[in-house]
Amino acid sequence: MSRTVSIAAIPGDGIGPEVVAEALKVLHAAAPDDVDFAITEFELGAGRYLETGDVLPDDELERIKQHDAIVLGAVGGVPGDPRLVGANIERGLLLKLRFDLDHYVNLRPTVLFPGAVSPLAHPGEVDFVVVREGTEGAYVGNGGSMRTGTPHEVATEVSLNTAYGVERLVRYAFQLATTRRSKLTLVHKTNVLTNAGALWKRLTDAVAAEYPTVAVDYLHIDAATIFFVTDPARFDVIVTDNLFGDILTDLAGAISGGIGLAASGNINPDGSAPSMFEPVHGSAPDIAGQQKADPTAAILSIALLLDHLGYADSAARVSDAVRADLASRAETGAPRRTSETGDAIVALLTS
Amino acid sequence: MSRTVSIAAIPGDGIGPEVVAEALKVLHAAAPDDVDFAITEFELGAGRYLETGDVLPDDELERIKQHDAIVLGAVGGVPGDPRLVGANIERGLLLKLRFDLDHYVNLRPTVLFPGAVSPLAHPGEVDFVVVREGTEGAYVGNGGSMRTGTPHEVATEVSLNTAYGVERLVRYAFQLATTRRSKLTLVHKTNVLTNAGALWKRLTDAVAAEYPTVAVDYLHIDAATIFFVTDPARFDVIVTDNLFGDILTDLAGAISGGIGLAASGNINPDGSAPSMFEPVHGSAPDIAGQQKADPTAAILSIALLLDHLGYADSAARVSDAVRADLASRAETGAPRRTSETGDAIVALLTS
Ligand SMILES: CC(C)[C@H](C(=O)O)[C@@H](O)C(=O)O
Ligand SMILES: CC(C)[C@H](C(=O)O)[C@@H](O)C(=O)O
Asked: Strand, coil or helix: what is A113?
């Protein structure tokens, strides 16, 4: 008796299809014996928009929601392409999925694997997770402009934060901290963004009282970026808002060997909609179709997917294979085609 | 005939008084022969607030405005001090000065001086300036909360951006670029903050047309942090908003030898009010009064002050002395008292 798990794959634009192809190879190779991953592809992204004018049609969104999980490559066209002005694939597709599927936990682990090269001279043992809020903050699209295009234009962006949205995220972060080194750092800018800051601080303090074994720390976003380059080993779990989390996780990717290795999960912990797994990197149209992209971030996102679906052993096997592959790559040092990395990891999984 | 230039000094809290003392020594030593710097001290900050309840009384603000320039050390008490809850020295004092005196250019140069130690393994030639907006954006204090303190709280922060405010800043940045390596990078998050982003992009493009010799580039804030650690040498002039500028300049300080070296000028280019010069670092109450703080950032801020007041030669002499001092410190490597660094730089200036 085998169980079928349905996966919606959105390869997307640029290097997206190349890295997703490798990620799916690895998914099949790492699947438990009694589990069948059934993949349905959705052709969405800038390419689809340019062909048909569609960004994310409602009926496709509905069909995507019927799956057990989503794998996304990367979406977005060539920067500055005039045909994409006003379309905003990021807001209309990527953020729409995160918001509509209530992906309130944007989970972004950072590990400096042996063999990966950090730009830091003395990175130390880097192993932390950013728990980024995914459905609120400055990302809600609540802004506008008046006298647009004139010398008197005024443009606004509103960051919306709710106790409901912040508390559920903070609770997830504390729970995660208990499974790790039991340290949690709230990152915000409470001295300037006093209203949102007070809300985040109050709820972090409140939930902290329920987790007496977790050591809690606070850093302003500016100070946090300093520690990312001077002492990243100090972090375990970082909890922060949507915008600060965006910034910190690109920096986190950079210090831990490049965002070619940075994986992420857009998690709906309640299970009311499928969670979505994607590399942190973008579509990199400049190297698309050349088999130059490193699929490791997409493959590590598969480990997050497996873990989320309850296949912790399979997830660990994928992480271990990536770890082994990075170490052996560091020895040979030869450049790799995208598919070679996928093949190497599949070989490690099946050997 | 000597000219008198009036300086309002706000030593502030923590290490502020120690670093300002050295900065003022250097100011006097570097003054042109026919210029007299007359210093008036204003005791403002968390310390004053705790003693008297005052943050920035109106009449003191008026007196500060009568000066030719302001030197500020650092303000802010011990983090978490319950007596400071609700006072917000940052908003009521530091930001009030920036906003009231229309310091719309927050100028933050980053140079990796020979002898300074970067946490990056291969930093390259780091020499860029962040031109941070100082009077708008998420810093305007336009937010609020409802059902505050309840499980139904909603808290907002509004980023306000005006064509007037953005254009004058962008223009300053382009002008500055022509005096440097003629490269300008706009940093924003146009794909998510579409309203403010469009305004910043439109005005940067418009002003760019007047500066055909300046090469213009755009980066999302998240991508910019990656380049700060992988290739900071690519930057010349960066123009960005108040919040992104705050984040980028702490990171810039960190990669270029620590924020003990990072200087800043809060500039009112129109001269309608005095400009203010301050180190980027905070009050560091944990090491206050111990002569442990490095006054170099405060001293480099004096170079910015001299330059702003039209004493370019004196400014260059201060920078050169700092450069020489950092190089000689790197050779001996012995820890220094705050006053020793000030004395060493004065000695270099007067020898
Ligand atoms: C593409 C963009 C909208 C997105 C974000 O800002 O969240 C990306 O930077 C990320 O971090 O996943
Ligand atoms: C103290 C704080 C309000 C200030 C800011 O955010 O501007 C500081 O971080 C800075 O960069 O000067």
From this structure: coil
List residues of A with catalytic annotation.
139, 189, 222, 246, 250
Dihedral sign (CA A46, A48, A50, A53): negative
- Percent of chain B scoring above 70 in pLDDT: 100
Q: Supply angle C-alpha A191, A192, A197, rounded to 5.
A: 70
Interface probe, candidates A195, A230, A264, chain B, greatest B C-beta count within 10 A: A195
Q: Strands A127-133 and A215-220, how do they pair?
A: unpaired
Predicted pLDDT of residue A224:
98
How many Å apart are CA A122 and CA A126, to the nearest integer?
Answer: 10
| Sign of torsion over alpha carbons A125, A131, A134, A138 | negative
Domains of chain B with CATH codes: 1-104+262-351 (3.40.718.10), 118-256 (3.40.718.10)
Ligand lying nearest the CA atom of residue A221:
2
Q: Give the whole-number percent of chain A exceeding pLDDT 90.
A: 93
| Residue list for the binding site of A | 98, 108, 132, 222, 246, 250, 282-294
Contacts of A113 (CB under 8 A, 6+ apart): A256, A257, A261, A322, A323, A326, A327
For residue B25, what pLDDT is reported? 98
pLDDT at B78: 87
pLDDT of A286 = 94
Other beta carbons less than 10 A from residue A292's beta carbon: 15
pLDDT band at B294 (very low <50, low <70, confident <90, very high): very high
- In this prediction, residue A198 carries a pLDDT of 96
Tell me the C-alpha distance between A211 and A204, whole Å: 10
- Of B246, B307, B311, B325, which residue is the catalytic one? B246
- The verdict on B204 touching A (C-beta cutoff 8 Å) is no
Q: Identity (one letter) of the amino acid at B37? A: F
Pocket test for ligand 2, best of B44, B55, B72, B90 (most atoms within 8 A of CB): B90
Q: What is the pLDDT of residues A152-191, one digit of tens each?
A: 999 999 999 999 999 999 999 999 999 999 999 999 999 9
> Taking the CB of residue B342, how many other CB atoms lie within 10 A of it?
25
Annotated catalytic residue B222: yes
If one counts every other C-beta atom within 10 angstroms of the C-beta of residue A334, the result is: 7
**pTM for the full model?**
0.97
